[in-house]
Each structure stands twice: as C-alpha cells, then as structure tokens.
Queue: 2 jobs
Job 1
Amino acid sequence: MSLQRRHFDSLILGAGGAGLRAALQLAEAEARVAVVSKVFPTRSHTVAAQGGVNAALANVSADNWHWHMYDTVKGSDYLGDQDAIEYMCRAASNIVYELEHYGVPFSRLENGRIYQRPFGGQSQNFGGDQASRTCAAADRTGHAILHSLYQQNIRAKTHFFDEYFAIDLIRDAEGVILGALVLDIASGEPLLIEAKTTLIATGGCGQLFRTNTNTNTNTNAHINTGDGMAMALRAGIPLQDMEFFQFHPTGIAGKGMLITEGARGEGGYLINAEGERFMERYAPNARDLASRDVVSRSIATEIREGRGCGPDKDHVLLKVDHLGEAVVAKRLPGIRDTCRTFLHIDPASEPIPVFPTAHYVMGGIPSNRFGEVVVPVGEGPEEAIPGLYAAGECACVSIHGANRLGGNSLLDILVFGRAAGNRIIDYLKQNRFHRPMSESSLEAAMARLQRWDQAGDGERVDQLSSDLKRVMESHCGVFRTEQVMHEGIEALQQLRRRMAEVRLNDSSKVFNTARVEALELENLMDIAMATMMAAEARQESRGAHSRVDYPERDDSNWLKHSLYFLQDDQLEFKPVRTNPLSVESFPPKPRVY
Ligand SMILES: Cc1cc2nc3c(=O)[nH]c(=O)nc-3n(C[C@H](O)[C@H](O)[C@H](O)COP(=O)(O)OP(=O)(O)OC[C@H]3O[C@@H](n4cnc5c(N)ncnc54)[C@H](O)[C@@H]3O)c2cc1C
C-alpha cells in the first residue's frame, strides 16, 4: 500500500497546554492546522497540573511582573535567559485573563477576583508579606486549562489526529523541516503529514526515572517519554541543559503521586521523626516555601542523617491537618482524593508521608522567546532552523535555568505556545507553498518504523526499560559524583548495544502498544545519555544539579548552557543571555531563601 499523505499549513506535535495554545492562535488566524497526539488530547500531562499558574495580578498581595522576574532569575540559579524571563513575566497577567475568558473556572476571592496562593520561591520581602502569585482553580488548575483550550480549539476548527504517534521529523537536504512521519496507532499504518511549519510540543521525559519503588518514583504520566526531544536529536539538533532535572519535594512516599506545593502554600509544613519543622534550619526565611531544589535536598539530608519517619525511616511528613477541614475541602480537594485513594488516609486529620520524586525537565530543545528552534552555526550567533518551532516542557527557552519555580511551567507553555503561534503566522505569510519532498528524505523515518517488524527472540523492551531507569536513578539522582556518573555513562553505552538486539513478541499491526513502547524506549535511551553526559561534564552545583564533589556554584567557569549532540555524544556550551529587554540585568548573587 502506498504511503498516505496529508497537507497542512502548520503541524503541531502534542496536544498539551503548549500545543493547544499555539494551535488556537493559528486556527483563529485561519491557518490550516493539524494537532497530533499519541493520546486523546485531554489526557496530556497538563491535565495533571494541580497548584496553579503564576502571574503578578496582585489580587492577594502587593506584586508586579518585575518581582516575578527577579524571583524567576533567582530561582533559576542565574542560568535562565533574562530576555525570555522578562518577556514571560510581562505577558503573564494577560495570559491568565485570556484563560478566564476561554472559560477556565478559577477559584475566587470574596471580592470576586481570581484566587492566588503563595508558592515556593516567591519573594517575601515586600513589606514582610509573602507574595501570593499562583492563580488556582482549586488544586485542579491544569485540568481546567487543558479542557478549556481543547474546547476552544474545537470551536476554531483545529484538525486533530488523536492517538497518532509521531515517529520522526522529515528534513530536506538544506535542513528545512517539511513535516513528520506519524503512526496511526489504531491501524498500525504510517501517515505522512506535510506542513510548511512544524511545532514540537511533546512535553517532558519523567519516565527516565522509575515508578513504584520505595525510594524512587516519578510524578509523570506514562506517556512522558521525551519523544519530541529525541526526534530533535536525530535531526541533528542538540538538547540544552539536560543535566537539570527537578525532583519535587512532596511525592507520596513509595508511590510518587504529586502532592502540590499548594499544600504548603496554604500553610502546610514538613516535619521529621522528631516532630521538628526542619526547613527552618535550611531556609530560615522562606522555610517550607523555599525553591524545590532546596526543599528536596533538605528532605534527602534529613533522611540520610537518620531523622526519617516510619519503620524504615525513609520519608518525612507533610502536615495540613492543622488547616481545618474546610480549607482542605475547598482549596485541596484533589490531593485529598489522592490521599484517600492511594494511602487510605484523610489529610484533613492525618499527616501525609512524602519523599522527593522525579518531576520536571528544565532542559530541552534550544529555542528563543519566539518559539523558534535555534542552533549554533560555527563561531557566529545561533540561527533559527527554517520551519521548526518548539514550546512547552520539551523546549528550553531558557526560562527555568537550573531550577524551575512552581507555577511557572503552566505559564511558560501558554506564553511561548502563543508566541510560537504568532511567529508561525508571520512565517506562513512569507512561505506560501509546500516545499517539494524527495523520497530519500523519508528513508530514515521509515526505517525507524520498519525496524520493529523484525520478529523473533531477543532482548525485551520491558527488561531494558527497567534497566534504563535503574541506571538513571542510581547514577544520576539528587546527589551526583564524577565516579558514579562515569560508571553510569558506561552502563548506558552497554544498554545502547543491547537495544539493537531487542525484538517484539507481537508483530501484529492493529493497536500494537508494544511497538509504541519500543519506539518510546529508543527515545528515552538518547535522552538518558544527554542527561548523564551533561551532568558529568558540569563540575559545579547549581539549582537542581548537586555535585557532592563540587558543592559550590562556579560562575566564573560555569555560567553557561550545555548543548548535547547525538552525533559522537558531543558536548558544546553557549553563553547565558544575561541582558533583559528593557530593565537592568540581575547579576548573580549567593542564593539564599
Ligand atoms: C503531576 C504534575 C503536576 C504539575 N503541576 C504543575 C502546576 O501546578 N503548575 C505548573 O506550572 N506546572 C505544573 N506541572 C508541570 C506542567 O504541568 C507541565 O510541565 C506542562 O503541563 C507540560 O505541558 P506541555 O504542553 O509541554 O506537554 P504535555 O501536557 O505533557 O503534553 C504533551 C503532548 O505531546 C503528545 N506527545 C508526546 N509524544 C508524542 C508522540 N511521539 N507522538 C504524538 N504525540 C506525542 C502527548 O500526547 C501530549 O498531547 C506539573 C506536572 C506534573 C507531572
């Protein structure tokens, strides 16, 4: 059967908040836009976001975008690019009002304004009050946002390919991106989508780390396998700052489901086995609302020093029971459900056992504040790849630098999803025709799919997948050293060799999820190597990257972004953009909370 083809102005890979916000911008501008998602759009991981989205609306405390910018630069441990951070913080209020008009049912204050709660890393020093910057729809904010955006896209007539798996980007000889080869999961047939522009919005890669062991868990959906990042790598594009992976301080111990930072924002706090509020020792001012890297390391240290709770002293407790039943019911109904379902406890009357859990990737596809994918060209300035864009968790703009603040990712995906949409509209005005696609430009993508038609005995996907996760957690976790990561790289090289021997037991076509899992595992392998290589190279501690052998931040040598290229596992570096757009730069200072 010949390969089916479809043509669109614009192709968007991913139907999370980033993909849907971009699609809406394009559909409203009357571009023909296709959105491809490997799951039904409203099952994208954005749906799981709990706590909220940051914007300096000043509904609860004094606030403005400049303070938000300062907190974000400080939170990033000065690795964030300040032009992009300024752009995002300035855009935030309008983005939230826009959501409200799309139908997001934000929680309300008595006076009818949007409810805002304090979150980690938000400054405290304005008149001594804690800033309350995180706009929330109870603790189901992502759910509300994703459903509203999906409905708006249906109204605007965006074309959806639900349950289609993107395999690879298609590039011509000049490096222009012409669309993507995708797989119809239901029929098992490939489909070629040709487009004048392609936006990668495929989300994060939390599945690098294990689920369901006592001490190693992640909060991410099973679909978060970094597919778009790996597609970029195979197209010769590097990944930026992959050594920075965020561990969220409060996953349910031994299980990993997230308990939102909003629980601490509402007044919850952590205690150790002695009943002590230990965060007072690590972050005397911000205490439980210090940034996530700081709180996660503090919990890990308490446990390592023997002050963990429970028979195995392997977790700490998060108390919200003192807040009263009414606050828990009104502001934290989702985490109450989660605790009842998975722990059989009611957090309104009992503390929650928690432990840090793998949560968010700060690194990703290098992009700028217009959503364009940018790559270094010789010694000159970086250049945008024609027709290719990236937004959301898979992109590295870089807003979050070495550590993301809670509530800033929902903002990031919306601001830069929208910005990418606008940039694409401009590009489409100047590039009105599809470029010709030669058969040879399809070969690599087709081969990648056909490789899984080989049946027979061999290594198994699930075995390799759990070996990969074990290597990541034991060689690239919260605390890192040279020797351990060096061994980790060797272990990954061995896994790569074994990957060539993997075979599927089931070679049928119709809804063959084994084939999809195999393609996802290949993607995770490359991302694991990017993460480990960049982590081994960075000889300092900054944000989420904590080196036992290099405990200090080193601005004179390491205030720079890493770039990992798949070809020859090569690493390069590029400078941080320290100049904002209109205000003065925030120079690096010691980071204390
Ligand atoms: C439990 C949890 C709670 C969170 N809470 C908050 C919060 O309160 N505030 C905050 O700011 N941030 C929060 N975050 C982070 C934030 O939700 C995510 O970073 C963000 O939603 C990612 O959005 P996205 O659009 O980039 O990707 P996603 O929402 O992950 O969507 C990715 C899309 O790509 C598609 N896709 C991926 N690979 C393929 C492929 N190969 N082919 C086809 N489609 C593909 C998927 O189907 C999906 O549609 C939370 C994260 C988690 C895990």
Note: Residues 4-244+362-430 form a domain with the FAD/NAD(P)-binding domain fold (CATH 3.50.50.60).
Job 2
Amino acid sequence: MSVAETIVGEAYSLITQVASWFLALPLLQRVLLVISIPFVYSITWQLLYSLRKDRVPLVFYWIPWVGSAVVYGMQPYDFFSKCQEKYGDCFSFVLLGRVMTVYLGPKGHEFIFNAKLSDVSAEAAYSNFTTPAFGEGVIYDVPNWKLMEQKKFAKVALTTDSFIEYVPLMREEILKYFASEPAFQGKNGKANVLKTQTEMTLFTASRSLMGRDLRNKLNASYAAWYSDLDKGFTPLNFAFPYLPLPSYKARDEAHRKITETYMELINKRRQQPYVHDKDLVDALMNNSTYKDGTKMTDQQVANLMVGVLMGGQHTSAATSLWFLLHLGERPDLQEQLYKEIKETIGDRDLQWEDLQKMPLVNNTIRETLRMHHPLHSVFRLVINDLPVPGTKWIVPAGDYVLASPGWSMINEKYFPHANQFEPHRWDKLAGSGGGFQGQGGSNPANKDNEDNATVDYGFGQISKGVSSPYLPFGGGRHRCIGEHFAYTQLGTLLVTYIQNFTWTSKVPEPDYSSMVVLPTPPAEIQWKKRE
Ligand code: HEM
Ligand SMILES: *[C@@H]1O[C@H](CO)[C@@H](O)[C@H](O)[C@H]1NC(C)=O
Ligand SMILES: *[C@@H]1O[C@H](CO)[C@@H](O)[C@H](O)[C@H]1NC(C)=O
Ligand SMILES: *[C@@H]1O[C@H](CO)[C@@H](O)[C@H](O)[C@H]1NC(C)=O
Ligand SMILES: *[C@@H]1O[C@H](CO)[C@@H](O)[C@H](O)[C@H]1NC(C)=O
Ligand SMILES: *[C@@H]1O[C@H](CO)[C@@H](O)[C@H](O)[C@H]1NC(C)=O
Ligand SMILES: *[C@@H]1O[C@H](CO)[C@@H](O)[C@H](O)[C@H]1NC(C)=O
Ligand SMILES: *[C@@H]1O[C@H](CO)[C@@H](O)[C@H](O)[C@H]1NC(C)=O
C-alpha cells in the first residue's frame, strides 16, 4: 500500500466513525450541533485572529459570514464612530464573508486613495457592479492603464471651452422641464425631488455631453431606459452580477437601446464631418486611440459614454436634491442666493462665466457635498500584503480596504457644528482658486499640508497629497474627473431653481442602503412661483 492510500484509508475510517457517532445522537442534539458548528467555528476564528499581533483589530460579530453587514449597511457612519471609539481610526470588520479594513480620517485617505497600483485594485472591487451596467471594455472591465487613458479621452469634453457651450444647453433642458413637468404646473405645488432631480440630471448631462442632436430623444422613453439600467445597478450586483432576474434582463435590454442610440449619433456625425461641438461624442470621435495604437470600437465608445454619464448621474442627482431640501428650511439663504444672482446677471441669461462670480452658489454646493457625500464608502481589493504605516499590522491580500471621506466631512473634529447646513462656513475660502476642493493647504482644517505637489496618472495633473478631511471627489489615480462638470451642472440647476421658485421643505433622514446616500421618502418641496 502506498502512503497516499494509507492516508485515504485512515481518513475514510475517521469520517465513518464520526458519522456513526453523529447519527447515533438524538435528533434534537444533532440539529443543535449542526447549527452551532458555524458559531463555534466563527468565534474560535475571531479569538485566534485577535491574538495575532500582525492584524488590524477586528470588530467582534455574532452571526457567521454575515458579520457586521446589518449595522454597517443601515448606519455606516454611526457604526464607524462606535468602532473608532473602541479601536481608533483603523479597524477591520466582516461583511458577507469578506474582511474589510477601514481607515478613517486624513491618514486613511492617504493610505487608500494613494495606495500603490501593485498593492490594491479598484477594478477587482467594483467590476461586478459596474460592468453589467456600463458594458464591456470600459472603466473597471479593463486594466488600470486603459482606464487612465479613457479618463484622459473623456476629459477633453470636460474643459472650460466645453462648459461654456454646455450651460445654455442645460438651461434650456431645465426650463423645458419646468414648463412641461406636471409637478411644476400652476402657481404653487409639491414636487418629489427624488423624481425631478433624477430626470433633470439625466437630461442636462445627456444634452450637454452627448450633444445637441440628442434633444428630441430626451423624453419619457429615454428616462425609462436609464431607470431600467439603474434597477440592475444595485448593491446586489457586487455578489451576483448575472442572475436570471427580470430586472437584470431589463437592464441588459436598456443598455442595448441606449448604446445603439449613442452609436447612431456617432454615425450621423461621421456623415457631416465639419460640425464640431465640444462634447463627449466629439472628444471620443477625435481621439480614443490608446497609446499602444489600438482604437476603441464604437460599442466601447458608447459604453464609455454610459459609464461617464452614470458616474455623474446618481452623485449629481443626490447632491441637487439635498441642496433643495436644505434650502427649503432656509428661506434666508434662498433670498441671499436670489440677490447674488440678480446682482450678477440681472435679467440676462446665465452663462458659465457668471457661475464663477457667485461664491454663495458655489459654497452651497460645497456645503451640500460636505454633509451629504453621495458615496459613504470607497473600496479597493488588497492584492499584495499591505502594511499599515506606523504599526505592526499587515492587511493581507484578499481583504478589502475602505475609506470614508463622508465620515470625516460630518465629524466635529474637522468641521465644528458639523450637523448644521451652513454654506457661509466656506466664505473665507472664496477665491482660493484651484484649491477649492480643500487640498494643498487651502483648507484651514488642513494646516499641516503645505505640500502643493501635483502628480499625473495619465489624465492630467492632480493634487499629490490626499490627506485632507474634505475629499468629496476622492484622490489618487481614481480621482473623479467630473468635479468641474458637476459644479457647472449643479450651479446651473441651483440658479434656475432660485430664479423661478421659492420653496419650503423638511430635511428627511438619510437612507444609506441604496447606491448613493438618498433621503428617506417622502422627499418633497412645496414650491411657489416667483413673480
Ligand atoms: C457631485 C458629483 C460627484 C461626486 C461627489 C463624485 C465622486 C467621485 C469619487 C469619490 C470618485 C472616486 C471613487 C474611488 O476612488 O473609488 C469618483 C470617480 C470618478 N467620477 Fe465622480 N463624482 C461626481 C460627479 C461625477 C461626474 C459628473 C462625472 C462625469 C462627468 C464623474 C465621473 C467619474 C469618473 C470617470 C471617475 C473615475 C473612476 C476611477 O478612476 O476609478 N463623476 N467620483
Ligand atoms: C421619445 O422619443 C423617441 C425618439 O424620438 C420616440 O421614438 C419615442 O416614441 C418617444 N417617446 C415618448 C414617450 O414620447
Ligand atoms: C463577483 O461575482 C462573482 C460571481 O460571478 C463572485 O464569485 C465574486 O466573489 C464577486 N466579486 C466580488 C468582489 O464580490
Ligand atoms: C475635435 O477635433 C476638431 C478638429 O481638430 C476640433 O475642432 C474640435 O474642437 C475637437 N473636439 C473636441 C471636443 O476637442
Ligand atoms: C490620442 O491619445 C493618445 C493616447 O492618450 C496620444 O498618444 C495621442 O497623441 C492622441 N492623439 C491626438 C491626435 O491627440
Ligand atoms: C466655484 O467653483 C469652481 C469649481 O468648479 C471654481 O472654478 C470657481 O472659481 C469657484 N467660484 C467661486 C466664486 O468661488
Ligand atoms: C504652496 O502654495 C502656497 C500658496 O500658493 C504658497 O504660499 C506655499 O509656499 C506653497 N508651498 C510649497 C511647498 O510650494
Ligand atoms: C424661469 O426663469 C427664467 C429666468 O428668469 C425665465 O426665463 C423662465 O420663463 C422661467 N420659467 C418658468 C417656467 O417660469
């Protein structure tokens, strides 16, 4: 008999002995034993884990595999604060069988946003979730160097020259919406901002980025496609990207219709080559050739358009509905905004340059992003054992790291009276120019960061340091490219709302369970038309 056969034989006899012992037990004991095994295993595992000196402290949990999923999923910021009191800024928790290492505050931002490409992967963490909605060959379905180039291709349509063209197009969409949307008819009424802001964001972004020729297609059918695409864009995707569910089928069908529409736009423009709008279609038609010489296909270009649009859709829609809800509680701010707008443009039509002369409009957006960061967590998969600086801890490959700028931005330590909506807290920073995100020493909460250094990961210069508590647009190689677009779109929306209406509302509690942090319904404003 060979050694292997002996081992197999021994193992077999051990298994049969255990099995016959188990089967001889009374039924109740058998059931209890089966139920308790995972618990005993989980608690033993946690005990052994907590004894390791090279591991980040682990938050204790009772339910095996599920871990802290429920508390985290319902109230992530409260959960983080409670854990921070116990363990400090860096701790781990179990989420549906995965170990997540959270690092709160500016040092955590540095640790995660500026982690090396060889140590962490965003695509491994996000692809299940984004690829079915955006389509293949773009964003997190490609190696990082391609994503960096795709961001560079798209950024061509996110410059000042483009924004100057976008503002009148966005204005037209907003006014068209006010004139036709049933919720805004008459002298006064009630509007569900979850609905109106989703639609207005989609229409203003599509009209500007996808070009003026899309105008007649921006109707209820177009909104319905995006709504179907959205329904398949849920946290469920993280674990199960492809299920035979009707909502997933509708998602795939919507993706096909939207990208076909975008490819039609591309083909139409090929037939009239002298028309150049400075939009995303034009930018990607001009150059979507990677530096290795390969070209993106039309389908991939259309997918990238969906990805860029979706990247801005939920984030901007959420931001605009939160500022509407807050301003509804602050008629004084509405009047100050009205005055600022009147003094800047009088009765003339809004232009992009005007937005640069309205600090209160800017600061209202900035303050809304502080209190309501749309994304409460950003993730990376650790692909190479990652030491936590200044400690003996190592986050092992296979675990996830999690940063939460949203938590810092509502923390008293960094923002006194953090739970008060106060755009004027930013007044003294007006004119701080390029540092408006609060990076590079322009933020008083960031005095010790005198480092103005920048870095280019392939899509333009960005701030190198990310150790600011105020980071609504992230940092490092995955930093948002949509910041200026978002300010342009949100500024245009805010100005147009203030010009047309006054309103009241009550700010609802945030609901953290959806993709972005949204208000718990009902989320309504009671509006009156301005005379
Ligand atoms: C208020 C609006 C917005 C907020 C708060 C926001 C926030 C963010 C954040 C935090 C990230 C980094 C994610 C990470 O590190 O995992 C990001 C990335 C990104 N955002 Fe935005 N965003 C907004 C609007 C937009 C808009 C309007 C666009 C498109 C025009 C856009 C396109 C992107 C893209 C392409 C990335 C890069 C993803 C990557 O490199 O992995 N975003 N955004
Ligand atoms: C929306 O526009 C498209 C394209 O012009 C058209 O086929 C569709 O019937 C329209 N839908 C509605 C609800 O008006
Ligand atoms: C992605 O989905 C696959 C199943 O298709 C699953 O095995 C994997 O764990 C998922 N990845 C993440 C990061 O959840
Ligand atoms: C595309 O190239 C044309 C011709 O060089 C130029 O006029 C146009 O502005 C470019 N489009 C964008 C969005 O940069
Ligand atoms: C297009 O982009 C590639 C890669 O980013 C770059 O090398 C090339 O110079 C660009 N071509 C034009 C015409 O701008
Ligand atoms: C408003 O923010 C934008 C960033 O999009 C910036 O370019 C502009 O200078 C700011 N304007 C004021 C008045 O602070
Ligand atoms: C950073 O910029 C500020 C203001 O522009 C300047 O006063 C400071 O000296 C700069 N710091 C470094 C390290 O360059
Ligand atoms: C909204 O305000 C603008 C600018 O004052 C005006 O041109 C437009 O007619 C108004 N729209 C509605 C629906 O009242």
Note: Residues 130-529 form a domain with the Cytochrome p450 fold (CATH 1.10.630.10).
